[in-house]
Amino acid sequence: MQRQALFIFLALTVLLTACARSTPTNFYLLESRLTPVSTDSLPAKSLRVAAVSVPEYLEREGIVSRVGESTQLIVAQFHNWGEPLSHGIRRVTREVLTRPMLEAGINVLPTGDESTADYVLYLDVQRLDGNFDQKAVLDVRWTLRNKFNDVLARGIFVDQEPVAGKSYDVLTATESRLVQKMAEHLAGRLPALTGGKR
Question: Do residues 194 and 153 touch, judged by C-beta distance below 8 A?
């Protein structure tokens, strides 16, 4: 009888442990923190930001960080991107480019509009990760093509910024700023390359 009671007690303990709440997963987004743009009419010329290419090590939900200066990576189990990282980079780039390109007489096509554009911007991300209490790094190759697929310009944007803390809030905010800086760099280049008014 004691063995049976002990077995039932152990079985209930295992069941209760299995039903216990697990650690909640946190989700993060890249953001530009820009005020929305509104206009009554859009220019006829357009720019489309193509689907962004990211390396395989970033094609996952968990946020990737590095161990010091080594090649060792940590993939967070309970700290995930709220959308695929490539989508977040594309979205932030569009947000940042919209106002300066409108001023140059070019409409940046919105999400979901994959129609033929006068210009297409391709972004090939080589690296976007960071170390807690050290730095985050962004390395992007970009190409601008016209509607005939001719290359108008190519460039490389590489930057880093200190990560002042050990939380994923701090790391993702730093990575957001790097993506925004990359898009701002392009906003300064693209109007001239597309023959805009700027």
Answer: no
